[in-house]
Design brief:
Helix content: 40-55%
Radius of gyration: 18 Å
Strand content: 15-25%
Shape: globular
Number of helices: 9
CATH class: Alpha Beta
Structural class: alpha/beta
Largest sheet: 3 strands, parallel
CATH architecture: 3-Layer(aba) Sandwich
Distance between the termini: 29 Å
Strand order of the largest sheet: 3-4-5
Order of helices and strands: EEHEHHHHEHEHEEHH
CATH superfamily: P-loop containing nucleotide triphosphate hydrolases
Length: 199
């Protein structure tokens, strides 16, 4: 995301399908098509619901109205939003509730056909009902996508993840099956965090 900011160039190794994303030879356009991003706060574009979801496919060169309509419907169905908005696709995305906006942003991320979906605290700005809808959506989507979710909510991590990595102050402390991390962690620092002794 920060490839044009020289001081933001990270170091280390991060691979997607065996390709180092930090390698200067990596085609960032293709990478951005393979990896979708959902931010902490819903950030729909100031456009219609339809145009939000169709935005990425249009950038990819899809112009036929019928094909765009198919993509928009499929993505809104996958984001568990279609039933709520199907009769009002020309409505401004900004008029949706917070939870609906976040599901719209998920639909928009899915529209480019990613393999990986990154979610940065996707429920932190949502009420419990909207949070439950997003968590149900994550459970359904993980059959078709690799989902990486960042959360400080230990209960949410335990509910939605298959594997958990615990980071503290920029260091990877422990990674493993979620049930093991929460019931039998190998590191004392992990145990202290998941049991609420700090954090």
């Amino acid at each position: 995301m920060n490839d044009l900011v020289p001081s933001a160039r990270p170091s280390g190794l991060l691979e997607v399908n065996g390709q180092d994303v930090y390698d200067r030879r990596t085609d960032l356009v293709i990478l951005r098509q393979r990896v979708g991003m959902v931010f902490q706060r819903p950030n729909p574009f100031p456009k219609s619901i339809f145009d939000n979801v169709a935005y990425g496919p249009r950038i990819q060169g899809i112009r036929r109205a019928a094909r765009l309509g198919e993509i928009v419907e499929r993505c809104l169905v996958h984001a568990a939003l279609w039933g709520e908005v199907k009769d009002d696709l020309r409505k401004s995305a900004l008029a949706l509730s917070g939870g609906q906006q976040q599901r719209l942003c998920i639909a928009r991320a899915l529209a480019t056909g990613p393999k990986v979906l990154l979610m940065d605290e996707p429920c932190s700005a949502l009420d419990p009902v909207a949070t439950a809808r997003i968590e149900e959506l994550i459970a359904a989507l993980k059959n078709d996508y690799t989902i990486v979710i960042v959360t400080h909510n230990m209960q949410q991590a335990a509910r939605v993840s298959d594997r958990t990595a615990f980071f503290c102050l920029g260091e990877l402390i422990e990674v493993g099956l979620t049930r093991d991390i929460f019931t039998n962690p190998r590191k004392r620092q992990t145990e202290d965090y998941v049991t609420g002794r700090f954090g």
